[in-house]
Amino acid sequence: MMLADIGVLVGHAAGWAIDAAPGRTSTAVGAATGDPRSTRVVATASCTHPPSRDAAGNLTSYEPQRAVDGLSDTAWRCAGDGVGQSLKLTFTSPVRLRTIGIVPGLAKTDPADGTDRYAQNRRISRVRFTFDNGATAELSTDTSPSDRQMQNLTLDGDGVTTRTLTITILSSVPGSAQNGHAALDTVAISEVGLG
Q1: What is the torsional sign of CA 155, 157, 158, 162?
Q2: Which residues pair with 187 in a beta bridge?
Q3: Contact residues for 33 (Cβ-Cβ < 8 A; gap 6+)
Q4: Which of 19, 77, 85, 184 would suit a FRET pair with 25, their CA atoms being 20 to 30 Å apart?
Q5: What residues form DSSP beta bridges with 97?
Q6: How far does CA 24 lie from the centroid of its chain?
Q7: Where does the NAD glycohydrolase translocation F5/8 type C domain lie (predicted)?
Q8: CA distance 178 to 169
Q9: Residues 36, 73, 107, 183, CA torsion sign
C-alpha cells in the first residue's frame, strides 16, 4: 500500500476539495504537502446536532464533514456535553500522522449580530485520539473563550501510520450567555488539523 502524508489541514486551507455529500459522510480529496498522491477522508460521527439558524435567519448545518472542510467558522456539533461522542476520519490509504489538532468549539462570530458562538457554546477540554492499531493519545485543550486557535498534539517519534482516526470527547466546559443570548448546551469541533 502507498503511504500518503497528510498536510497541515484537511480541507480547503490545505488545497483540498470537499465533496460535501448530505448526511454523515464527506470526502476530502487532494494532494498533501505537494505530494502528487491523493488521499480521501470520510468523516462520520456518533451524533449530529440538527441545523439551526443564525441571527439573520440563515440555516447552519453541523454534519461531520464540517470538521474537515478547512473553514473554522463551520463545525461538527452535538447536543449536550459531548462526553463519549466521537468523530471518525477514515482514509482510503494509510496516512502518517505526526501532529493532530482540533479547534475545540464552534469558532464562529454571528455575522448578523456579532454574538460570539465560541463563548456561547460548550468548549471541549479533553479528547482521546484512537488509531486503527488500537493505540491512543490524549489532548487537553485551553478552554478560554478567547483561544479559538487550532490546539495540537505532537506524536512521539515518526508519528503513527493509520487508516482511521477516531476523536472521542472526554470532557467539555459550559458556555456562557452572549449578547443577550443564553448559553447553549452543545459541543463542537470546528476543524481538525493533521500534519
Answers
A1: negative
A2: 78
A3: 5, 7, 8
A4: 184
A5: 160
A6: 14
A7: 54-192
A8: 24
A9: negative
What is the model's pLDDT at position 5? 37
Q: What is the DSSP letter of 156?
A: S
DSSP state of 181: B
Q: Which residue from 38, 61, 40, 42 is spatially nearest to 50, judged by alpha carbons?
A: 61
Low-confidence ranges of the chain (pLDDT < 70): 1-39
Domains of the chain plus CATH, in order, are: 4-194 (2.60.120.260)
pLDDT computed for residue 21 by the predictor: 33
Q: Is residue 160 classed exposed, middle or buried when 0-12, 13-18 and 19+ CB atoms within 10 A define those classes?
A: buried
Instruction: Return the pLDDT at 16.
Output: 32
- H or E stretch at 102: strand 99-103
Query: Could you write out the three-class secondary structure of 19-87?
Result: ECCCCCCCEEEEECCCCCCEEEEEEEECCCCCCEECCCCCEECCCHHHHHCCCCCCCEEEECCCCCCEE
Q: What is the pLDDT of residue 39?
A: 65
Q: Tell me what pLDDT residue 17 has.
A: 31
Q: How far is it, in rounded angstroms, from Cα 38 to Cα 36?
A: 6
- Grid cell at residue 119: 463563548
